[in-house]
Design a protein that fits this description.
alpha+beta, 5-stranded mixed sheet, 38% helix
Length: 95
């Protein structure tokens, strides 16, 4: 399966420290092993899955979707605060 990052995901992931990037890589591998690990969203975000995991003491959410061509698109990562609002805004812009 091919992995593609959105510009928003890459921008936020760039800010992570080395240890945090390692945790993020582990979570992406877990998604690749089992794409159904995240919870599929409803309504405006239909087709988008969100995987929750802890890094240090903060819970992070990683949004992704899988295209028909077996491409894993990493959409957005961040803490819960305003996450779904920003995710919905981003997906509307991309349509």
């Amino acid at each position: 399966m091919k992995v593609v990052q959105s510009r928003l995901f890459a921008k936020k992931a760039r800010r992570f420290r080395k240890q945090e990037k390692q945790v993020l890589d582990q979570q992406v591998r877990a998604i690749l092993d089992n794409p159904e690990i995240g919870q599929e969203k409803r309504g405006e975000l239909r087709g988008v899955f969100v995987h929750k995991f802890k890094m240090h003491t903060t819970q992070y959410l990683l949004a992704y979707r899988i295209n028909e061509n077996e491409i894993l698109e990493l959409i957005m990562i961040g803490p819960h605060e305003n996450y779904y609002r920003d995710l919905e805004k981003y997906t509307k812009e991309r349509k």
